[in-house]
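Final report, closing paragraph on structural work. Over the funding period we assembled a curated collection of sequence-structure pairs, and we close with a single example.
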Amino acid sequence: MKIIIILIIWVAILIFNAIYSFLSSNIQNKPQIRYCAIAAAIIILVYGVYQIIQKQQNKIYAHVSVEGKILKSKNFPWTITIHNKDKEGAIIYILDERYGDASLVSIKLDKPNAENKKYKTYNAIDGVGIKFFCGKKNLSSFWIYIKNL
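Its predicted structure, as stored:
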């Protein structure tokens, strides 16, 4: 019930803010209408700032060294294990016990170059795998970002 009331108030504020610019100048100059317009604009601004803060607080990321150690993290409860090479010679990092959609995981390299830009995220048995198709000497530390739905 509380959500419905908040939603109705929010819709009323947005409708008032949209209609205000179409009102005649005589109506716009009335103090009550002007104060309502200012209040509506402030409420919309505060709500937008609140959403940005919430989005920032809900980010999930980790800065990972080449050795697989987490250097810095936020909301990142998983450990990382490293498998030096697979059959193709790729280096594999596993986010242990991180199950779910591997496409939500993205990588940003600290020092990108032509060799280390090729990587793949996939679902592994132990969690989410990140496979780099380059040698360890071409790899730099990297950031792991996980989209929060």
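Residues 64 and 70 are 5 Å apart (CA to CA). The radius of gyration is 24 Å. We thank the funder for supporting this effort.
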